[in-house]
Design brief:
Two copies of one chain form a homodimer.
Chain A (H helix, E strand, L loop, with lengths): L1 E4 L3 E4 L4 E10 H4 L9 E3 L9 H20 L8 E5 L6 H6 L7 E3 L6 H14 L5 E8 L1 H9 L14 E2 L2 E8 L6 E6 L14 H20 L8 E5 L2 H14 L8 E3 H4 L12 E2 L1 H17 L5 E9 L3 H5 L6 E9 L1
Parallel strand pairs in A: 3-4, 5-6, 5-7, 8-13, 11-12, 11-14
Antiparallel strand pairs in A: 1-2, 2-10, 3-9, 7-9, 10-15, 14-15
Chain lengths: ~325, ~325
């Protein structure tokens, strides 16, 4: 069961447990600062397949197998899966889970998808709709780049505000019992549009959504940023994270040293030439499933606010002169 | 709260109420057999906008305004909205709800989206995560046709198994109290792939998914088709509905005269030249929000099983030689 808290949030009465997490990333991510936190690093961007879309589905399939093995569960033990990605019609998720036999709800939250799948899976478990639910999210540099921007062969120049779509997948199993970090609260996102029309500046487009959701979260629960050991957005990148800090500061709220962003964590800004950082829903998915949850299990952080952000655009909306509406969904995870 | 029933289903302990529904369709749909059940029929396929994508967002916006007016609620009274469509990155939904201020979860279930949004909204309400939730789903012939198939100007020939994507939107408000039909059970879909590779024969691709979900539903709840006054899939069309009847018959299950399909209902097969019937998630959305729920309110049907089906393909998966995985989500609605 859930309890409405404040205007927009819910508290989970019986906080479900993240009993297992797994993540897979590509070669570039595997050379970054978080390399030790990933379960699998694939130097083959095709993951043994013939197309990048099939590669991304294969990455999902492998990550799902890995998280099931960690939890010592079989697909038949998972009663609901919530999954999403960036590819048109979310097909890499549906093909990735095609043979699993797991009851399936596809979601689309752009780069906020990991928070959305986690939120919905947690709601389903805490309400008795499932004993074990799965949240799966992925992105792939090569599927996203050619679909959202230009063919890779075109070699387009990237402006300093642009981010690098992560090749990565994260999968979580959320259960009614067991040991692990617990999902205690959810603040869903409201679509926010700051009027940004530059599709190469997603950080600026998404920061106002993160600001809106974090503000609602703190108000609803009567908390300040200091309640959390770690507040992590994903993926505002360096540009967007700076804007978010400024927006909060205007309200008199200091996010402080406990704030960071998945897009800032996953690549080395100096050495890896990614400009404003990582992006893609696989970024926050793999950082949450590895680095963050590992840190919670090891006692490094007790209270984490995971607020994934998504830019709800498409190449069509950009071509039609539209601005970039964005959303952020926040999930509080506590040990 | 929900209670697991059988292997795959859930029963809703406090069945949430569909307190209001609204639907908008295009001109062709408004000339069909269900014309009197639609709230709004627009002869302008642009809905006053300059592009079809903006038209679809405008249709969503209008339908949301209409359902709110019927329920005498304001957007601020809706605590969660679940919405989805067929357009790449689900942008017509996010743009349609951009100014609403309603907390938003985007979903993607292809043509099963109306059942998915209704299922998730019902779960959220019955568990106390929201007092009022909204389920919104749309499709538009012209956005879908040019995105999934060919530019309209190309004038491609349509084979007899092809279906006509409905221009339509349905919106429901699901509440913890009030009067109206109630959502009593949900059987989520499992991805099913019968190996069909003809993207112009969606009925054949989706019928096995409908068969799988209906079979699970009847088993889980210990029911036969005769429990329901109306079993309605959406959108198998004439071809797919025949296949579904055959598949059930092989199991010794007769769907009987209480079975029909939204894609068969919405157009006049003889006069409207739609070949195998209607499709697109706006088809089942507008048929449910108008014809079916009106019929339940007037006492024509007491128990309805609404099983929307989706083909989880994209033009990319078709070009890469993949078959068409499908899914069906069933929701039982009772007065």
């Amino acid at each position: 069961m859930g309890k409405r808290v404040g205007k927009r949030s819910v508290a989970l009465d019986a906080p479900p447990v993240i009993i297992a997490s797994a993540c897979t990333v590509g070669g570039k991510e595997g050379e970054g600062p978080l390399k030790d936190s990933f379960d699998t690093i694939s130097d083959d961007s095709y993951f043994g397949e013939k197309t990048w879309e099939k590669a991304e589905s294969r990455m999902i399939k492998n990550t799902v197998a890995s998280v099931l093995a960690k939890a010592a569960l079989s697909p038949g033990d998972i009663e609901l899966a919530f999954a999403g990605d960036l590819v048109n019609q979310c097909t890499v998720s549906s093909f990735g889970l095609r043979e699993s036999g797991i009851p399936y709800f596809g979601v689309y939250g752009a780069c906020s998808t990991m928070a959305e799948t986690l939120a919905l899976a947690s709601m389903a478990v805490s309400s008795g709709f499932a004993s074990n639910a799965m949240a799966v999210t992925s992105s792939h540099f090569s599927t996203a780049e050619r679909q959202y921007r230009m063919p890779l062969e075109y070699g387009g120049q990237r402006p300093p505000t642009s981010q690098w779509t992560v090749t990565g997948c994260g999968a979580l199993i959320i259960s009614s019992g067991g040991a692990g970090p617990r999902v205690t609260g959810i603040t869903p996102g409201v679509i926010t549009d700051a009027g940004i029309t530059d599709a190469n500046n997603m950080g600026a487009a998404m920061a106002p959504a993160a600001h809106d959701t974090l503000t609602a979260h703190f108000e609803d629960f009567g908390r300040t940023p200091s309640y959390y050991d770690l507040i992590v957005t994903g993926d505002l990148g360096f540009t967007g994270a700076d804007i978010l800090r400024d927006l909060c500061r205007r309200d008199g709220v200091e996010l402080g040293s406990g704030y960071t962003d998945c897009g800032m964590l996953i690549f080395d800004r100096e050495k890896q030439d990614v400009h404003s950082g990582g992006s893609g829903c696989g970024c926050s998915a793999s950082v949450l499933s590895g680095y963050i949850l590992n840190g919670m299990r090891s006692g490094r952080w007790k209270r984490v606010l995971f607020a994934a952000t998504g830019a709800l655009l498409s190449p069509t909306t950009t071509m039609q002169g539209e601005s970039v509406p964005s959303i952020a969904c926040a999930v509080s995870i506590e040990v």
